[in-house]
Structure formats: structure tokens, C-alpha cells
């Protein structure tokens, strides 16, 4: 893997592909043995629990302390939590999950939490003002905890969530106002799937970006596929990132069930390493 190690700017790797097959620390060990040092970890058992005393948490914290790895973020799948639920009990439960996640991030040295801004009904969603107020209330509770742990909350553009587009995220961020512990995780595949140009999304959110997610997809089926297996043109996106002087983490979030995870990840990395991509992955 010397070609990957020689890259000027190797990407960070999300461990989604190992969600059901390996513990998070085991997945990191596999990826580290192939030259990767920067990660975003999926936070879901059996891959990783919320317990800061679990074996995987202790192992990962030790690697962060000795600087052998960087943990850019923790990312909890959205199916078991919902900040935009009409049920106050679900919102309360979700707040507890996020607080525990923030505490875990502080304990193991993860720098950010990727925040799904609540799932909404595709048939008959709650009114926009209600959704926004629930999210504002949630962040009012979570941001003080994030500040105390030195963790940044990065709200993601999810097709199934309350803030699916860059303009939605920008309006929400402006409603809250600047906060050192709040930013955006912008996912290129999610943007493409909802019919948004990721280049325009990046330019719109340039002052709030914390993390960029790359994977491939079409617009008929929502996927996080290996780069090159979908419809996304990544060269203009890389140029847009270069144009705004982006120096934050670029995360490959690849889910390719028909391929071994490492093969899908390294294949995606190589696909972004050609001369047409001017963002340092060359």
C-alpha cells in the first residue's frame, strides 16, 4: 500500500463498512495496517458501544493519546434516535444518547460528533417551525455539554432528516448564530441524491464546514457506494474544496455490501487519486 502512504493528503476513513463484522478498534487496526491514520467511527453495537470503559474505547483512547491515530468524529446511525420526533419522550431519549456520545468522544479523544438533525415523515412531515424549534431546543441542551468536553457538533445533510439541503442548514446555523462547538458535516452523496449540486452546497456552507463525506450514489436509490459506481462527478467537488482552502477532514464513508470493506475503501481512494482531482489526493 505504499502508493496510498505516499499520498500528499490521504483521506480519513469512516468505519461503516465494518459495522456488523468487526469492533471499531479491530476495524481501525485493519485500516491502520494499510496506511490509514485518520478515522470517523460508527457508534453502534456490536461495532462500538457508548461505554467509555469498553475494550474498544480503551484501545482507541490509548492510540489517540500516543498519536498513532486521529479520531475526527463519532457518528451514530439515525434509526435508533430522533431529535425531530413529535414525541417528547423520544426527543428526551435522543438527547440522553447524544450526551453520552459527547462524553464518550471527550473520553477517547474524538474531536466531533456527527449529528443527524432528526428524521421526518416523507408523507406528512411536521410543520417547518415545529421541526426547527425542536432542533433549537436540542442544541440548547447539547452545546454546553459539547463545550465542556471540547467536542464540536457537526450537523449533517441527510435526505430523511429535517435539514436535507445546504440552504436549510445555512438558515438553521444563522438562526443559532456563531458557536465554536457547532458546524456542518456536508455529505456529497446525500446532496446529490436530493438533487443538490455539492459544489454549490460547499460554497454556500463554506464558513460552517467541519467534515466532508465522500461516497457515490445515483438519484433513484440512496447509496454510499464505492467511488466510481454512481453518478457523482468528484473533480468539480474537489476543485471547489480547493477553492475555499479546505484543510479539514475529507472522510470516505463507503458502504459496499458486495465487496470486502478494505477493497471498496482503497478502490475509492485510488479513484480520487487521478490528476483530474485537484484536492491533494494525488
Describe this structure in words.
This protein has 282 residues and is α/β, with parallel strands linked by helices. The chain has one domain (2-271): Divalent-metal-dependent TIM barrel enzymes (TIM Barrel, Alpha-Beta Barrel), CATH 3.20.20. 40% of the residues lie in helices and 13% in strands. The protein is built from 10 helices and 8 strands. It has helices spanning 2-5, 24-32, 55-65, 88-108, 128-149, 166-176, 188-193, 198-204, 234-243, 261-271; strands spanning 12-14, 38-42, 70-75, 112-115, 152-156, 182-187, 209-214, 250-252. The protein has an 8-stranded parallel barrel, surrounded by 6 helices. β5 (152-156), α6 (166-176) and β6 (182-187) form a beta-alpha-beta unit. The two termini are 14 Å apart. The relative contact order is 0.13. Keywords: Isomerase. InterPro entries: IolE/XylAMocC-like, Xyl_isomerase-like_sf, Xyl_isomerase-like_TIM-brl. Residues 29-260 form the Xylose isomerase-like TIM barrel domain. This is Sugar phosphate isomerase/epimerase family protein. One of its GO terms (molecular function) is isomerase activity.
